[in-house]
Amino acid sequence: MDSAPPHSRDRLSPSPSADGSERFQTPEEQLKDLSGRDIHDLHRDAEADSVGLEKNELAKVLLTIGVKHNYGLPTGTVATPRQISAFWQSLQLQDLALAHACALGRESAWRQFMSRYRDTLLQAAISITSSADQGRELADSLYADLFGLTERGERGHVSPLAYYSGRGSLKGFLRATLAQRNVDHHRRTNRETPLTTEDLPAVSPGPTPTAEMLSRLRQTLEATLGFLEAEDRFLLSAWFLDRRTLLEISRILSVHEATVSRRLQRLTARLHDALLMNLQASGLSRAAAEEALATDPRDIEVNLRLLLQNPQTETFLKQKSSTGPEQT
User: Fold this and answer.
1) For residues 72 and 83, what is the distance between their CA atoms, to the nearest angstrom?
2) Claim: this prediction has a pTM higher than 0.85
3) Cα dist. 82→22, 27, 60, 62, 284 in Å?
4) Measured distance CA(55)–CA(60) in Å, rounded
5) N or C: which end of the chain has fewer CB within 10 A?
């Protein structure tokens, strides 16, 4: 009968307490039990304090990576404490702490990340695409993903940095991620290129929204956007209409790019919920409201730019240009 290796644990392990009952080990305790290494030493070597990553968080990362890669040993081989300790010591601990602190949204980590890798990533993207404009677009798309603007499935967004294992340099990991995004873009572009064959059957269109539905959606959109604060209007307009980059928006607002990303993510989620609620309040069922939100924006006779860029927004921008940097 097959049995799992004793160290292949994906949760905290039980250990006997003084009274004989079982209790679950903390990540720090489990790490020391496996390798004899104290988390304090690894935490210090990783300079994790400087990026806001706590000892238990680093221990969880190390345990997850160790189990996933079987501590660098062939599948089925049970690692000894010395081998486990050597595996963790072989990792790029400082890069690992930085990446996972960024994935957790730590502000100090993002400041270090952008200071170290902004220019490197831009040059790498330009080299990959052989174009300055396309390179900037590729780098910006990666930042949007890293910062949390891209939603993925029911779990929501998971930053690519959360998958960094520390077995190679973070710079190499980021370059590989850029290269893969560029390949994915080309594949997607090729799929979206119209076919020249004219005899293919037409794709059945989705249900056409009724005039009443479009009118109700337009009124709800106008009412919902009308309650937004000036800064929220500016964020939506700058990102979705003007196609400004996170860096450009952050410079206007005098905040960090990661802060802009998080604000946009929260704002779009809040706006979606508000529209859904207001459509239901107008008499639609939830299913009908969700169907209405899937309407092609081009079918709605509403000037989003006019709604978002009002005198209140202009006043806000003038105030930002006359004030100093904002604390994030």
Assistant:
1) 9
2) no
3) 26, 18, 19, 15, 64
4) 9
5) N
